[in-house]
Amino acid sequence: MNFLTIGHRGVMGVEPENTLRSFVAAQEAGLDAIELDLHLSKDGALVVMHDTDVDRTTDGSGPIAEKTLAELRALDAGRGERVPVFEEVLDAVRTPLQAEIKDVRAARALAELMRERDLTGRVEVSSFHDEAVAEAARLVPGARTALIASRYGTDVVERAVEAGAATVCLNIRRLTLEIVEHAREAGLRIIGWVVNTQEHLRLVRALELDGATTDYPEIKRTGRFTA
Q1: Could you give the C-alpha distances from 217 to 52, 120, 121, in angstroms and in order?
Q2: Of 8, 129, 182, 200, which one is the catalytic site residue?
Q3: What are the GP-PDE domain coordinates in residue numbering (predicted)?
Q4: For the whole model, what pTM was predicted?
Q5: Can 50 be counted among the known catalytic residues?
Q6: Which partner for 210 in 85, 189, 196, 215 could form a disulfide, CB atoms 3.0-4.6 Å apart?
Q7: If pLDDT is split at 50, 70 and 90, which confidence band does 95 have?
């Protein structure tokens, strides 16, 4: 099968997450796509960071939304890396991107950039929030979208279809054959996350998923399954 390997925040198992260093490492490892997270700074920049605040991944503290881009740039995001903006990632790597947005405001900012730079073929928009996925699909006709879920049941399929998503990105620890079959009946692609162990790889193969999001580049080699 055509199995997609997606680097989680770059290759966060070996490099500082959501940094240019991590994204370049993911590309050099040959991963098929790179997942990253987007927030808006106080002055409206699309900054790449997972949490709502900077405490865990930088030497600073406080909410991203209360800091200007200049203030965020002054922080160390690990090994001397700076907090990047999305435009820098687009220029630093050629690998397709899966951009996770946290709210409708970020969806609108990303949509504007996607229209300006004609990114529909390169960027898939994902979110845990149904309304953000629907907004991205509405604002960028033809955009590929994905609904992410951690705690879910078979209803995640109906939610994805209603939001206009073509893909569901699902917590591998909760995934069942029933949910996979339901998603297939609806014509959805299925990506499992986070797949870091041989046990989870075996489950991915058994369920015949379309891909896996991983913290480690080694999945690219072991993920090319054979019968």
Answers
A1: 26, 25, 24
A2: 8
A3: 3-224
A4: 0.95
A5: yes
A6: 189
A7: very high
